UniProtKB/TrEMBL annotation:
The gene is Tekt1. Residues 347-381 form a coiled coil. Microtubule inner protein component of sperm flagellar doublet microtubules. This is Tektin. The keyword Cytoplasm applies. Microtubule inner protein (MIP) part of the dynein-decorated doublet microtubules (DMTs) in cilia and flagellar axoneme. Forms filamentous polymers in the walls of ciliary and flagellar microtubules. InterPro entries: Tektin-like, Tektins. The lineage of its organism: Eukaryota, Metazoa, Chordata, Craniata, Vertebrata. One of its GO terms (biological process) is cilium assembly. It is found in: Cytoplasm, Cytoskeleton, Cilium axoneme; Cytoplasm, Cytoskeleton, Flagellum axoneme. GO terms for cellular component: axoneme; microtubule cytoskeleton; nucleus.
Length: 401
């Protein structure tokens, strides 16, 4: 018990002094280390702040540069889109012109074919393969060729419009992405350390597999622009071709149409001249028929007028042949009577001209009938060419579209 209540050992003043000095030295050392850490921390904080600020400024600058780059490409895409849209609208107008021109060819072709069919109704010698028919066949061939050419050009135009729209779609999709990228980079450029909606994002620096390189990004837009340029150039070339085709085909059809019309007018004039000549010949035949009929009537009357003298002469000869005996003398009276009978008989026999005249009259009648039939044929031809065909052709007009 006494040992438990024993007082703790006492240190000597030297130990106390040493302990105090050691405590002071330790404290000073700890303080120095702390001050160094504080100084290092402040330096580090200052360095990190400057680095962070520099990096953030650099990132902001890069975002701004990227924004300008996207804006540049967006402007390029906008310009190309405007061009391809305009070019497509022009092609659509040309497509409408081609369709109208193609439609306008149908009526001239139908008219040419109807003219050919109508002219098959010509009769007799007038059913001839004349210049009109040759030019009508050529006109039908020209129009059919024009229709085929316009049809091919129309299909080519539709395909070019499709390609233009495909290029336009690619540009629009690229522009849509560029617009969204601009909005996102605008948002990113506006963010500051004090923006309310900034937050921590888990795995923010993780690289996704759908990232593309800047070179691929540029190539993508370049490809879209090049495709648009290619289709626009093709479209420009096609436009020039279409304009030339529309003008040339319209001129070809109009030229051939005028050639056919000239051939029709010439043919109608020829037929009218032939008809007029036939009518003149018919009038001559009618006059000649009347003269021949008058001649036949005169011949018949002349023959009938010789019957009395013949009867008288023959009666006298018969009576004098009954003279008796020596009175039956071949005297001058008897001789003259015989000669009279012979003379009159001979003159009557010379009237076989009547039969020839009647034959000629029949020939004139046949010729008159033939001329009348031929005139009827010419009238039929004139009706077909001048009334049916030419009037039908007057209603047709080949417009330029």
């Amino acid at each position: 018990m006494a040992r438990l209540l024993q007082a703790p050992p006492k240190f000597c003043p030297a130990a106390w002094d040493i302990a105090n000095k050691m405590q002071c030295a330790s404290t000073e050392s700890q303080k120095s280390r702390s001050e160094r850490v504080i100084a290092e921390s402040r330096r580090l904080l200052d360095e990190v702040e400057k680095t962070t600020q520099k990096t953030q400024n650099d990132v902001s600058k890069k975002i701004a540069q990227r924004w300008e780059e996207i804006k540049f490409w967006k402007q390029e895409l906008d310009y190309k889109l405007e061009q391809i849209v305009h070019e497509t609208e022009v092609l659509l107008t040309l497509k409408t012109r081609l369709e109208k021109s193609l439609e306008s060819c149908k009526e001239p072709l139908i008219v040419a074919q109807k003219c050919l069919l109508n002219r098959q109704r010509r009769a007799g010698i007038d059913l001839v393969c004349d210049e009109v028919e040759q030019e009508l066949v050529k006109e039908a061939e020209v129009i059919q060729g024009v229709i085929a050419l316009l049809g091919r050009t129309l299909e080519q135009t539709k395909e070019q419009i499709r390609l233009n729209r495909s290029a336009k779609y690619n540009l629009e999709m690229d522009l849509k992405d560029k617009f969204r990228a601009l909005m996102i980079d605008d948002y990113c450029a506006a963010l500051t350390n004090h923006t309310p909606d900034i937050r921590y994002v888990q795995d923010a620096v993780k690289m996704e597999g759908n990232f593309v390189s800047p070179e691929d990004w540029i190539d993508f837009s370049n490809t879209n622009i090049e495709k648009a340029d290619k289709q626009r150039n093709n479209s420009l070339a096609l436009r020039a071709l279409i304009d030339g085709i529309l003008v040339q085909t319209a001129n070809d059809v109009r030229k051939q149409r005028e050639t056919v019309n000239v051939a029709f007018r010439n043919r109608v004039k020829e037929v009218k001249d032939a008809k007029h000549k036939l009518e003149t010949l018919l009038a001559m035949v009618v006059d000649e028929t009347a003269s021949q009929e008058e001649n036949i009537a005169g011949l018949k009357k002349a023959i009938a007028g010789k019957e009395g003298p013949v009867k008288v002469a023959q009666t006298r000869l018969e009576a004098r042949s009954r003279r008796p005996g020596v009175e039956l003398c071949y005297d001058a009276a008897q001789h003259r009577l015989r000669r009279e009978v012979q003379e009159i008989t001979k003159n009557i026999q010379r009237q076989d001209t009547l039969a020839q005249a009647e034959t000629e009259l029949k020939g004139l009648s046949r010729q008159q009938l033939s001329l009348e039939e031929e005139i009827q044929i010419k009238e039929n031809t004139l009706y077909i060419d001048e009334v049916l065909c030419m009037q039908m052709r007057e209603s047709v007009c080949m417009n330029s579209f």
